[in-house]
Amino acid sequence: MTRLTKSTLSALSEAVRRPAYDRARLTAGIVHLGLGAFARAHLCEYTEDALELEFGAWGVTGASLQRPDQRDRLAPQDGLYTLLKRAPAGPDLRLIGCLGEVLVAPESPAALIARMASPDTRIVSLTVTEKGYCHDPATGRLKADHPDIVHDLAHPDAPRSAVGLIVAALKARRAAGLGPFTALSCDNLPHNGGVLRGLVRDFAALSDDGLAKWIEANGAFPATMVDRIVPATTDADIAEVAGLIGLEDAAPVIGEPFRQWAIQDVFAAGRPAWERVGAQMVSEVAPFEFMKLRMLNGAHSSLAYLGYLAGHETVSEASGDPVLARYLEGLWAEIIPTVPAPQGVVLSDYAQALLARFRNPAIRHRTWQIAMDGSQKLPQRLLGTIRDRLRQDAPIDHLALGVAAWMRYVSGTDEKGVTIDVRDPLAATFAENARAAGRDATTLSRSLFGIEAIFGGDLPREPRFTQAVERHLAALFDKGARATVAAL
Ligand code: CS2
Hints:
Radius of gyration: 23 Å
Bound molecules: D-mannonic acid
Largest sheet: 5 strands, parallel
Distance between the termini: 53 Å
């Protein structure tokens, strides 16, 4: 089959919507760090829409911080790829044209820094996942002993981390007499803009105080809330897209139709007309972020652990299980009183809409995928909510079961005795704890509560929390996930 490229578009199926602007005139104004499926289905689609309405120098240069695979798939396609939106009613196909070159940081950090430092670059956006910030998830501060940070301080011209790259590029801009770019975090972190600002400033201050002050005075780090469910693309998706579009696309992205983006409108050097295509430009992102991180992601993680243990491969299957659906309702009832509703939003309606999104049978989002990196996700998804509930002296049964399910999951063996492929920066620590504790809920929970980067110093000293988790964990070991949830 012919490969998708800019010169084979005549063979592209009529069913695919094409860029409605002249791609040959597009120049890059955004460098995106961490070019995964999510950014290609979210930031790139919003940018594509904005270019169609108001053309400008807002093409996207992608950058992979680790592996070359995205570049290797996209470069032969001139950066073109298909976005397949899967609604229960049927697929919607779109060719995304705003992505140009893809750089691979480890191959040439200098080339990436030069691109970020170029006067043409006005925004550096990021989706590097929670662990890509090299911070302590419980406090949001830079981990000065993180191996990538240690490396980057020793090799400031060849950084590996997003923070190291941003500081190197801002340093080069300052030296060249340019202003900063806007650093736009699009990751699921609380106060993502403020956290990134703090990390960049702290990293800069370790080597160049003047630079740190310049960043503090001139830098722009808007907070954002990003939302679209985008499961990892599978070989089956690739084969299906080829059949639908009539060309071979090695890098399609698959997402749900729903999307949302709330952005704090503080940019240093302009931005695409995202507000004209549905992005919400707001002065306060926090209410959106609380709602999304706590209600969507908190439910996603809890459901992923319980669902995986109960033998459900996808979120759609898990949320279609009546026992787990009832659990979700109970979980949202505990979360909602801790969330200030963004203007115009009724949180119970938001919860119902989430349930429908989770159940979308056309999206196969693996529970295993969401279960990854729990150490980086739990604090903002569940533990902050638990702290608020304890302060309100309110029940935390469903929330604590989410945490217990995570513990049961990272113990590394499923309910049939099969090894779980636990992916997490702390996976080795979990394995060690699990070896020492066996199936003893008290020993296992205590050792995991001792990880301060996750639980902080306060939660392990809260018996209402620790006892609830321990009780649930014992039940999960004894009865299994489904029976434990059913007995709630
Ligand atoms: C998911 C998110 O993988 C995960 O942890 O919870 O990627 C989720 O699908 C997105 O945040 C939805 O916007």
